[in-house]
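Exercise 7 asks you to align residues with tokens for two separate proteins.
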Amino acid sequence: MKTYPARRRARHPRVPAFAPVPLRARADGWTPERQAAFLAQLALTGSVREAARRVGMARETAYRLRAKPGAGSFAAAWNAILGRQTEGRRKVTPDERAQRARYGLLKPVIYAGRHAGTMWKPDNSALLSQLAWLDRAERRAGAALERSHGFAPPPASHKRSHE
């Protein structure tokens, strides 16, 4: 009987999917693609300075990007890549949930030791969560209307005729 050697799995650094930091569109700035490339390079090198240099940005601007409002997902991916522990699960803000539902997530792909590309990944759980939140808001608005002691505006189909 012929025996084959055990196959080894490729060991690529894992980069989690993340919601890019919402910024003004600038060709020389931190575009979503550049943010994904930075996280991929960070996974490959383990150095913020080297990762920023490889994507054509400065280390200081990477830290400023991380500190911006709406950068929670980016910062969490950064921490996961460097193996930093966070306290429990990170709370997703309503603004971030809406952004994730609308635009999805980015997933940097590493193949053969280099950044091969970036995949766009829809965030279905954020979409369902956003729809449930909107449904609850609609029900709350309807309940508040009922509590207004019958002084609600008449339905659009019920119009008075002035003759």
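Second protein for Exercise 7:
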Amino acid sequence: MSLEHILHHRRSVRFYDPDKEIDPETVKNCLRLSTLAPNSSNMQLWEFYHITDSETLKKLSHACLDQESATTAKQMVVFVTRQDLYRNHAGKMIDLETANVKRTSPVQKQEKRIKRWKLYYTLVMPFMYARFFGILGLFRKLVMLIVGIFRPTIYQVSEGDMRVVVHKTCALAAQTFMIAMAENGYDSCPMEGFDSIRAKNILKLPFGAEINMIVSCGIRMEKGVWGERMRLPFDEVYRRI
């Protein structure tokens, strides 16, 4: 299928065929493709929980308010944000960028570029992602307000703002996953209606983890797609400047 065909084919499916299974390895590969989604500063503060165990599916379906998108699903994927791992991921990015510079940059420029990446991932990223009861976010906003007097800068740096950044990044991975699933002839439904406390307990997620969305997976039945797709007139949302 062409990309346009895939995007028209993909729908949020509310009821899956109970007689049609899906290959967990194909779903796993779609998740592997989802890691290619763009993400802020390449920090990749996400985890993907691929649920195939029948008992866990039942428990998770109940946590998803017993909606049919969940109860009829053959498998589920829980997209989880891990802002609490920012130091660990920043350290990995230093190693990756150092290797990248050594592989692609002229020798005479390598030291300067490696130093720049180390500064970015050892100081800037920890400064941006650190949390302490909202206090660090207020301090960052004050710093950026001062910087903004002299040059363009980013003002969305509160602890709430950075949480939004992490969730946006994870949602991009979820969308990439659903497109990959459609390309393989599989269906999905992103669910935001769920009991996050119960879902976290079922998956034994640590305190710092947050669930971005739960995506159910299967093969649609005709009644699983509720009517024709409706979108606002394009002219109402499109602005050319």
